[in-house]
């Protein structure tokens, strides 16, 4: 069992047309979403050698969305709490205590993930 943390930043800009009570107006929109995710997961090892490990896994956790939207120059911000999850179809980890990993799956972290990791104990 392990715990993973992730950070994602999404930025959107655009213009659109808004119709209220028969009046058309053009709006400009800037949106930023900063997502912080923590997931506890269980992995199933297929290959466990001293320097390489191949695995699959499943996890569940939470995502905090620190959102900020600016519409026509007026900023608003809000925080949202979302359920998080990850299904790792195949993962490879290289190294002993300190190492790197590459994963393919889907969920809160996307489709392809890579990063650094540290194992506190075997």
Rounded to an integer in angstroms, the radius of gyration calculated over CA atoms is: 20 Å
Mean pLDDT: 90
Beta strand count: 6
Overall geometric form = elongated
Q: Summarize the biggest pleated sheet.
A: 6 strands, antiparallel
> Helicity, in percent?
under 10%
Strand fraction equals: over 45%
How many separate domains? 1
Query: Separation of termini?
Result: 11 Å
**Helix/strand order:** EEEEEE
The secondary structure category is: mainly beta
Low-confidence stretches: none
* Major sheet: arrangement of strands: 1-2-3-4-5-6
**What is the count of helical runs?**
0
Summary keywords:
single chain, 122 residues, mainly beta, six-stranded antiparallel sheet, 6 strands
Description:
With 122 residues, the protein is mainly β. The chain has one domain (2-118). Helices cover 0% and strands 85% of the residues. It contains no helices and six strands. The protein has strands at 2-20, 23-48, 52-71, 74-95, 98-107, 112-118. It has a six-stranded antiparallel sheet, with no helix packed on it. A hairpin with a 2-residue loop joins strand 1 and strand 2. It is elongated and about 65 Å long.
Compose a concise summary of this entry.
The chain has strands at about 1-20, 25-50, 50-70, 75-95, 100-105, 110-120. It has no helices and six strands.
Question: How would the blueprint of this fold be written?
Answer:
Blueprint: E1 2-20, E2 23-48, E3 52-71, E4 74-95, E5 98-107, E6 112-118
Antiparallel strand pairs: 1-2, 2-3, 3-4, 4-5, 5-6
